[in-house]
Model the fold of this input.
Amino acid sequence: MKVLIVEDEIDVADLLQIFISLDFPEAEITIASNGEDALEKINILRSVDFIFSDFNMPKKNGGDLFLEVRKILPTTPFILVTSEDPKKHKQFAGASHFYHIDKPFSDKDVNGRIIQIQSGIKVSPSKSRDYIPIGIETLKRLYKIGTAVYLKISSEKYVKVLHPGTEFNDAEVKRFSDKSIHELYIEKIEFENFIKEFRKTVFSRLAWEKVKQEEKIDILADDIALIGKAARIFGWSPAVVSLAQENISNVINLLKTEPTFSRITDMLKHDKNKKLASHSILLTIMLTEVATRMNWASQGTIEKLTFAAILHDIELDDDLFADKQTLLMAGEIMTLKETAEGNKLLSHPLDGAQLTLNWPMCPSDVDIIIRQHHERPDGRGFPLGLAPFKISPLSAAFIMCEDVIYKSMIDPDCNLKNYFVGQKEYYSREPFKSIYPKLLEIFL
Ligand SMILES: [Fe+2]
Ligand SMILES: [Fe+2]
Done:
């Protein structure tokens, strides 16, 4: 099957080519950059089975090209790809073997049209489905992806860019990141399978042992982002709970095998994306260190803190929220109440706590830490604005560690030790007061 694409915008021509190759890998595709170029290419090709053409192009537009093509190829299907109404252009009046695809288009629009023309049947437009965003780095970890992967091209349109079983390697990551695409989509109905596959591939003992220590943290952060999405969609389904438990025990084991804290200040400086997910890992590391220095380091306490660190922001689904949370430290809570996003942020400590209460294996007190993680040492936090003495010691340690992490996020050049020394007065009431020197020791 010979296909000619006539399009002056290279990205659009590329996309058309990718889509057609997905379902018709054997297609021989030629790209022309305008009407004149197309006529030359037709001359060389001699026969063409399908012509996809833009309308507005330099040299010769799609309408004039159509009239010329009809003189030499009277029955070749000519598919005009444009957001304009073809009826507006006189060249197409009474045209036969003529079709139209609206921009932006999906792979189904394009390939559906080819199938329709080939078989003479009508193809109904695809039903709208739900899709879930997945970071391309996460896709790379999976390597071979068992489900189709889509690109979002408008609020309702998704196009298939990878078939199930495709290898997602460095070249794929580059192909998308070069176009500033950092997330692709999978269908919601495939998500649970995707998670199972992720567990099997990434956390199988063999795979996990091969991963470098530094990279483990990134993987666990990716995984938290997945757990968050999954828990919001499915609640604590068995697949989600297994993934979360695996993540938590991996974090605990990771901390046992290496005193990762020595690298904490370096870690605080990297990874500006995935903020929500990676700050959870950093929190776990810091809290483990603080708990040890406070002589709280029983297995049970570490487990509670780890559960809380990983789950506390699970109700927030966007890295934007990580920035908004830092706003709240400046006492700008009330301004957020007016928007849906702001309300979600205000209620995430209660919602997150509720979610863990529905999880039978979650240790006790985790819900308390999550509920209190935005309370403040000066009583001006949310959701309750608790006086400091009503805040539990574990919550207080949690709050202080998270303050340091957020400080490092909004002010990457800050000397954290000087900052923390300057906070002495702010943390001068119990239970913060007794934890403060132990946390300070870490920076000394
Ligand atoms: Fe947080
Ligand atoms: Fe939070």
